[in-house]
Write a structure and sequence with these properties.
Length: 349
């Protein structure tokens, strides 16, 4: 009997270590970054500032923490009183559920990416996540094709009825089919990072990096002479953080997110199944070890990393041509490592 196995912190720690190592290298050995780290949304939050500025953390950390908590309160499937949990509990009842601005934005963004991806990204994937043992139960063998087919009848983002706010009425949403289940795990962390990023900018904060479980967005630079924030890309075939396959540099508010088959998975009958499921077929995706996306904002990077993992590099490269400022790196699930990169992504050693 195998149980779901989760390794949540590895990507975050790698990126933090790689960032720190890059800043320390060369002539900046004495300029250590100012960092604060805590837990939120089931993972680690890291806020990194320019060197020798600890006094800024007293202002910045509460702003970031408040933004992340707001998204978690609205969009967590693990909080029984969250907006998302209430929508799921009333699926098929036809009862419109009042939405906060954050909840309305999150659901609208998820529907947007479902449309862009033609269903490869689908926020109603919750029943499949439950079926495969990633949310509510432990399973001992793969689901049967019949059970997958039955579950697929409760999948479909077009059954989300979202009514945006007007001058006289708040936004509402409901799910039209009984047994449907919204799960925004593929986009909520990116949305949370973006909300925190914008609030820091409204407070005139500069030169920072926000990292929520590997979902990152930056502003400015880590030191005056830097071109940007140097981020390590993990080798998905090893747990040794220092063995990354290269680095990228983020500038001008850019964001990065990685989806990998090494973070969450189940082992059933001796075979590993990733938590990234194709909502069109009901089966976990195979053949890809990880996808890293650089995008203009963290929400886009988060949703797009899942989408590109599902559709693969051939279709993904075509999709990227329609998305200005978005770049990606795929690592197939084979060795030796042979990364596939879109034309705009520059991987450095």
């Amino acid at each position: 009997m195998k149980h779901p196995h989760t390794r949540r912190l590895s990507t975050t720690l790698l990126l933090s270590v790689a960032l720190t190592a890059a800043i320390i290298s060369g002539c900046y050995r004495l300029h250590l970054p100012t960092t604060s780290r805590w837990l939120c949304m089931g993972t680690t939050v890291t806020v990194t500032l320019r060197a020798n500025q600890p006094e800024r953390l007293a202002t910045i950390r509460p702003i970031v923490a408040q933004a992340l908590t707001e998204i978690e309160t609205d969009l967590s499937i693990f909080r029984p009183n969250s907006t998302l949990a209430i929508i799921n509990a009333t699926a098929g009842h036809g009862t419109p559920i009042l939405l906060s601005t954050n909840a309305a934005n999150g659901i609208a963004l998820a529907c947007h990416w479902a449309a862009v991806s033609q269903g490869a990204f689908d926020p109603t994937i919750g029943p499949l996540m439950n079926l495969w043992g990633f949310r509510s139960k432990t399973i001992t063998e793969p689901p049967t094709p019949h059970s997958i087919t039955q579950t697929l009848s409760r999948i479909g983002w077009t059954a989300i009825h979202l009514h945006p706010a007007t001058a006289t009425n708040p936004a509402t949403a409901h799910l039209t089919k009984p047994g449907m289940h919204l799960d925004l795990g593929g986009i909520a962390k990116g949305q949370a990072v973006d909300l925190a990023w914008h609030r820091l900018r409204l407070n005139h904060q500069t030169d920072f990096l926000i990292d929520l479980g590997g979902n990152m967005r930056v502003h400015g630079t880590p030191h005056p002479s830097a071109k940007g924030w140097r981020i390590g890309i993990r080798n998905p075939f090893t747990s040794q953080d220092h063995l990354d396959i290269g680095t990228i540099i983020l500038t001008n508010g850019q964001a990065v997110a990685t989806s990998g088959n090494y973070e969450q998975y189940v082992e059933l009958n001796g075979k590993r199944y990733t938590h990234i499921i194709d909502p069109r077929t009901g089966w976990p995706v195979s053949g890809i070890a990880s996808v890293t996306v650089v995008a203009p904002d963290a929400t886009t990077a988060d949703a797009l990393s899942t989408t590109l993992f599902v559709i693969g590099p051939q279709a993904g490269l075509k999709l990227l041509q329609t998305l200005p400022g978005c770049h990606a790196l795929w690592i197939p699930d084979t060795q030796p490592i042979s990364p596939i990169t879109s034309p705009g992504l520059k991987l450095q050693k």
